[in-house]
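Hi U.,

Before I forget, here's the chain from the pilot set. I'm dumping it here mostly so it's searchable later in email.
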Amino acid sequence: MCKYSFRIVTDEPGFSGPIENVTAPLGREAILACTVHNLSTYKVAWLRVDTQTILTIHTHVISRSRRVGVTHSDQRTWFLHIRELRETDRGWYMCQINTDPMKSQIGYLDIVVPPDILDRGTSADQTVREGASISLTCAATGSPHPQITWRREHSKPIIISDAMQVSSLEGPVLNISRVNRQHAGAYLCIASNGVPPTVSKRIMLTVEFPPVIVIRNQLVGASLGTDLVLECETEAYPKPVSYWSRDNGELVPIGGGLEPQKIAGSFRSVLRLPIRRVTNSDYGTYKCVSKNSLGDTEGTIKLYPMQSPAMENRNVIQKLNIVAGKTSESTPFGAQDFRLQDYNRGELSCLCYSTMLLFVFIINVVIL
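Structure:
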């Protein structure tokens, strides 16, 4: 008698495709998917590869972390959920079927982290003397590693040299050689890595230099009784002490007709001295003085007397009367007065011009 034995062969479970790698931002949720077929009574488990930690088996969560979960779709696709992602969650994860031998495949979870600028390794506000050199540094973390860009506040250009200016510079270090007052201001260290939000830090650069004075008009004329304003511009940092004095060293007092004023800016200020109703004692030399811890300087303005317009017209008329040689003439209607001051302004201007031409003509004739 022959004996026959039969073994029923069924399709074993397996994976329908690889686990796709997942990239997720810090603090969000990541979901890794593992698709299987012919699972039957077998179980699917999720593990952390580097620590060999079992996270889930079938529908049960083994991990003690409340952030870990598992779901499935008709027992074909099994999803590992990791919520509130941390950087320590980055790594390889294994999907495993408990066959004999065991079947498994792995997928990678990457955590992207928005940039953050570190206080340590990043320059604080800086103060430097004019003419020195300085380096501003910016340190940042993030995943991927952030790119550092330097800009100036209010879109001002970054001055590299006298002949070169740029709107921005790349790199963690900004080198400035031979600093001058035009370099002063706020610089922005901007860190970005494609993961929002982009962050920045404001670094204030202060440049110290001794006072410089600019006077637009060093000679000022004024007639008695008029009002005027003497003005000088100063540039300095630290903030200077500025004042007006006379040529004998006496400070200009406040009150009466003299009222010193200051109009200050960042490192530039305008020093004004209004003089009301000029008198003879107001004429002379005035000094605009500016001092700070790095030095001092001064500029001078000379106030000299001028005749009033009415007095000048009277003098001109008198000279023209002398040139004319007579002031009146007999006419059939009586004595006609030719005094020039009685002419109106238009007639006077015409007569003055004609007389001057006549005077030039007589001189040329005499010379020839």
